[in-house]
Specification:
Belongs to the TspO/BZRP family. The chain is built from nine helices and no strands. It is mostly helical.
Length: 181
């Protein structure tokens, strides 16, 4: 089966005609794969450490049970991917910078977990302070991403708001851990 002729043309050559369903489905799958790759890579740092040093760490009194983090992050990573996909579909002159901001926040997201969980056994409390700096930068980056996404796709911008809320909450947990461990 040969690709549609329109799928081989750039958006400018197509006159910004909508992408075919097949291309849209492939793009959504790619955005989901990128999000869950970040999740999976972060999982390598948490698996041994959640039952290791973190199990005995002094945690904030408002810390949720460990089992809650997986489902929450699954929803957030899915929402992030869908938001990026919605922006990608629009193909405006603002799409590229918006997706660049999305990429930056994804990299910061990827950096936080190994620093917080993986470096603590090596660096001690210093790792938790570095992780706090990363999560604060991540909050700023996601906020910028929302500001880029919103004018392109209101739904995409709204999909990232729970992510910001969770990051603010997570930063409070990170701060407590840095102060008390």
């Amino acid at each position: 089966m040969e690709p549609d002729h329109d799928e081989l043309m750039s958006p400018q050559e197509q006159g910004n005609k909508p992408y075919s369903r097949r291309v849209q489905a492939a793009a959504l799958a790619a955005f989901l794969a990128a999000s869950f790759l970040v999740a999976g890579l972060g999982g390598f740092s948490t698996v041994s450490n959640v039952d290791g040093w973190y199990a005995t760490a002094d945690k904030a009194p408002w810390s949720p049970p460990n089992w809650l983090f997986g489902p929450v992050w699954t929803v957030l990573y899915t929402a992030m991917a869908v938001a990026a996909w919605l922006v990608w579909r629009k193909r405006t002159d603002r799409t590229r910078p918006a997706l660049a901001a999305y990429g930056i926040q994804l990299v910061l997201n990827l950096a936080w977990t190994p620093v917080f969980f993986g470096l603590y056994p090596v660096l001690g409390t210093a790792a938790l302070w570095v992780a706090l700096a990363i999560i604060l930068a991540l909050i700023a980056a996601v906020t910028v991403t929302v500001l880029y996404f919103g004018p392109i796709s209101r739904t995409a911008g709204l999909l990232l708001l729970p992510y910001i809320a969770w990051l603010v909450f997570a930063s409070s947990l990170n701060w407590w851990a840095a102060v008390h461990n």
